[in-house]
Design a protein that fits this description.
The complex is a heterotrimer of chains A (277), B (303) and C (254). Chain A is mainly α. Helices cover 77% and strands 0% of the residues of chain A. By secondary structure, chain C is an alpha/beta fold. Chain C has a 6-stranded mixed sheet, sandwiched between helices. The chains are: A mainly alpha (277), B mainly alpha (303), C alpha/beta (254). Bound molecules: adenosine-5'-diphosphate (ADP) and magnesium ion (MG).
Chain lengths: 277, 303, 254
């Protein structure tokens, strides 16, 4: 589960962290990947194909939703993507083909065994992490920085903002689809609410708590936020309360997330040691 | 989490016998509820550019306080203003403690802080009041009223009347009182207003007080409609309220009101005509997306 | 000389406000043209119309013989336009160096897929350093943009525009907010750039510097072109004097 969440968080990091496009509906793409994979797995398709199909379908729909980000900006985009999330859940709920409220159960296993599946997830985690770091280092990442900072100015410096946004959406949503596919084989049972607004928010929190755009920050935040509910199991009643409070306090007192916080500590340590004797 | 909410709204037993007129009335009832919630959000957005998700927590708190006070005193008329005032003050505290220090951060910071706060608030209600919700000991305003041949409950009429009266009063006060004029000036141009000696921070407190108090009244009437207050009752209406303020052109009050009514009506008709493909909540967001694609700045451009 | 830029019968409206009405003139290759006029005359609007930041309701922009009126901004920039902002807009999240390195490496970002395959930022950084020394702010290259004085950021804007290697440089009040020494120095720099073959169209209120460096003036007032010609003739034109002086007086008495 931690691995799947890491893929998910890093997938949103491409869109929100690098390219600066807030999405409050990322779980929809996770869901599209999951439903696509689940349906195909049930008709007997092998794992590589189902995962690939889920990834492509999610990325394709993501590309379409990315088109909206060309029309609307900032807060408008945040709410539009939130709308996409609700729309997805709303459609899935009403479709008998997709199992409606009851979801899809009795999904075939990955056929890799527990350890094998774990390794598969791990391999994907490593690949997606490398991909994130690679994008960040490339000129694409440089252009993303510009778009995230000020898209009008980026345009005036010859950046094709629309193309970069679409690229971010396509990559990010495709990877979310992949995470969804993996989740299907992990849980072997999915319901619409697995992919609702709360999930979208959780993904966004992992990115924001980690520090928007920082791969290491997002990685550690995801691990902490995913394991924390387990850790606090003995106070399971307070689990969500702690979660909500954590989100609030991080944003309130360390708006740059963990990465920003560490950077600040580091800077102040350096400047104080520099000032010291 | 949304089941109860939808069950309350759609009245499945009567749904297929509704005439379009009844649908329109239902739309207006829900529209006025959305309006009273969305206006507070719109006020906050207009002034501070924050998507104040925790507003929903105040809406729920309003429901709880209204219900508890009504049960304790037996008087809804007494309970409503008290609950609204308390929630208004809490809204001001939230502004001071939560938003004021992070106003200069990028917008997602306040958004996520607000979402975190909202989750925490819901959990606090659950821990204090229990997960299953509370009901009125003797629910007020449940008698039936005839309106052009349609049976309505008094609470439904109350929702429309209260919302209309409060919002009209708000618009009157903002145009006629000194404080109101100061407030509008600050929304229009904070720098200019400050140069005329208007205290922007005081205006923000006022803003949060009014917005939160309105949300509380909304919460009370919604709880009257369903005779139920539960921790999660704020979620769906507040997400829709977010959609509404975006539709109305962020920060535009008139737009917010029109979008609220429009959404109420479209939902009422949509549930009947396209209900088998999309549930009620999805209809709202489908409308949002369609309109934003045509007019990215909302129905009425903000400032 | 051939016309590098032709502005043909341009009209722009914001809601009910007519910002530009039937404005037309052309700019020859190698020219140093200054666009002047009172505040609100529509100068910024015209430059934004040329780069495509805002859409024209009427008229055409022809650049190097091609009608670019329908092109998106980034395509016009790639064709050889560059613009600096009246109100500076550096990337706050980047260092001064990277602000210039991004446009200096513009050939790396032309294609999204290729951009992903290019990892080496040092040639662009090297070029950026050269440009920063040209505008004499190389000593702050590795600082964040935040907190830098306006004079430095104005020069950063210029370096960033130059990094695009434009044929036509559109400058929106590059000297505003600078003291007279700084302004003269920057104006000289711009003249130097012009000598190297870059055509310049500069919006500027500092008439002293304008008259010193430019070889042609176009005057806008109330969205219309009221004069066009060599500086001395234009400044002697009574229409220009009355437009300018009248407005100046209004501005002086708030
Ligand atoms: N984005 C805009 N929306 C509405 N009106 C604008 C906008 N930009 C400029 N204007 C108006 O257009 C006119 C010309 O403005 P501008 O081009 O900035 O003048 P200048 O640069 O010559 O001072 C002014 O009346 C200004 O108020
Ligand atoms: Mg100007």
């Amino acid at each position: 589960m931690v691995g799947i969440n890491i893929i998910l968080a890093l997938s949103l990091n491409l869109i929100t962290g690098f390219c600066g496009q807030i999405s409050l509906g990322h779980a929809a793409f996770y869901g599209i990947g999951a439903y696509c994979t689940a349906l195909l797995a049930k008709i007997g398709m092998p794992l590589p194909l189902t995962l690939l199909a889920g990834t492509i379908l999610a990325g394709g729909v993501g590309l379409i939703v990315g088109l909206t980000s060309l029309r609307v900006r900032d807060d408008f985009l945040a709410i539009t993507t939130m709308g996409v999330g609700f729309l997805f859940v709303g459609i899935v709920r009403q479709q008998d083909l997709l199992g409606g409220e009851m979801g899809i159960s009795a999904i075939p296993s990955s056929g890799l065994g527990k350890i094998g599946f774990l390794l598969l997830v791990l391999v994907f985690v490593v690949l997606v992490t490398i991909w994130n770091l690679f994008v960040k280092k490339s000129w694409m990442g440089f252009a993303f920085d510009a778009v995230a900072d000020d898209e009008d100015t980026a345009r005036l410096l010859s950046v094709d903002v629309a193309a970069y946004k679409l690229a971010a959406f396509a990559m990010g949503t495709a990877l979310a689809g992949l995470a969804g596919g993996l989740y299907v084989y992990f849980a072997r049972f999915i319901v619409p609410d697995d992919f609702g607004f709360i999930m979208s928010i959780s993904i966004l929190s992992m990115v924001a708590v980690g520090g928007i755009g920082s791969v290491a920050g997002v990685l550690s935040a995801t691990i902490i936020l995913t394991l924390m509910p387990e850790f606090f199991r003995f106070v399971s009643d307070y689990k969500l309360l702690i979660y909500g409070a954590l989100l609030f306090f991080v944003m309130r007192f360390a708006p740059g997330g963990m990465a920003g916080f560490v950077r600040r500590l580091f800077l102040s340590a350096r400047s104080s040691s520099g000032a010291g004797p | 989490m949304t089941h109860r909410w939808r069950a309350v709204q759609t009245y499945p037993e009567t749904i297929y016998s509704m005439l379009w007129f009844e649908l329109l009335i239902q739309g207006i009832i829900h529209g006025s509820m959305y309006a009273i919630i969305a206006v507070g959000l719109s006020l906050v957005y207009g002034l501070l550019r924050i998507l104040h998700v925790a507003h929903a927590g105040l809406f729920t708190l309003g429901g709880y306080l209204g219900l508890l006070l009504t049960n304790a005193t037996g008087s809804l008329i007494l309970a409503t203003p008290v609950a609204a005032a308390v929630v208004g003050v809490i809204g001001m505290i939230i502004y001071r403690v939560c938003y004021h220090p992070i106003l200069d951060q990028p917008p997602y910071v306040a958004l996520i802080a607000s979402i975190g706060l909202f989750i925490a608030m819901e959990e606090i209600y659950r821990l204090i009041f229990g997960p299953y919700g509370l009901s009125y000991a003797r629910p007020p305003l449940q008698f039936q009223v005839q309106f052009f041949g349609i049976q309505l409950r008094a609470a439904e009429v109350g929702m429309v009347v209260v919302s209309t009266v409060l919002l009209t009063a708000l618009s009157y006060l903002s145009q006629k009182t000194r404080l109101g004029i100061a407030w509008r000036a600050t929304v229009d141009d904070p720098q200019m207003a400050a140069s005329f000696g208007i205290d922007a921070v005081r205006v923000r407190y006022l803003n949060f007080f009014i917005g939160s108090a309105l949300a509380a009244v909304g919460g009370i009437y919604v709880s009257l409609l369903s005779n139920l207050v539960e921790p999660t009752m704020g979620g769906v209406p507040s997400y829709k309220a977010l959609a509404i303020i975006v539709l109305g052109g962020l920060g535009n009050l008139k737009g917010t009101l029109i979008a609220a009514l429009l959404l109420g009506i479209v939902e009422a008709f949509g549930t009947i005509y396209i209900g088998q493909w999309l549930d009620r909540d999805a209809i709202a967001f489908a409308l949002l997306i369609v309109i934003l694609m045509i007019r990215p700045q909302g129905l009425f451009a903000g400032r | 000389m051939t016309a590098l830029l032709e502005i043909q019968d341009v009209g722009v409206q914001f809601g009910g406000v007519r910002a530009l009405t039937n404005v037309g003139f052309s700019v020859a290759t190698g020219e140093f043209l200054s666009l002047i006029g009172p505040n609100g005359a529509g100068k910024t609007t015209l430059v934004r119309g040329i780069t495509g930041v805002i859409r024209l309701q009427q008229g055409r922009i022809v650049f190097a013989g091609r009608d670019i009126s329908a092109w998106p901004v980034h395509r016009r920039i790639r064709a050889g336009l560059a613009m600096t902002h009246q109100i500076v807009r550096p990337f706050h999240s980047m260092t001064v160096l990277d602000n210039v390195a991004l446009p200096a490496g513009h050939e790396n970002i032309g294609n999204v897929v290729k951009a992903l395959l290019r990892l080496n930022r040092s040639p662009a950084r090297k070029k950026a350093l050269e440009l920063l020394s040209l505008v004499e702010i190389v000593d702050v290259a590795h600082q964040s943009v935040r907190g830098l004085p306006l004079g430095v950021v104005k020069r950063l804007e210029l370096a960033r525009a130059l990094a695009l290697e434009p044929q036509l440089l559109l400058l929106d009040e590059p000297l505003a907010g600078l003291n007279s020494q700084e302004a003269a120095r920057l104006a000289d720099m711009i003249t130097g750039i012009n000598r190297q073959g870059v055509t310049i169209m500069m919006i500027e209120h500092n008439l002293g510097e304008v008259l010193r460096v430019s070889r042609r003036l176009v005057v806008l007032d109330n969205g219309r072109k009221i004069a066009d010609g060599d500086p001395d003739t234009v400044m002697a034109d009574p229409v220009v004097r009355s437009a300018y002086v009248g407005k100046e007086k209004q501005d002086a008495a708030p």
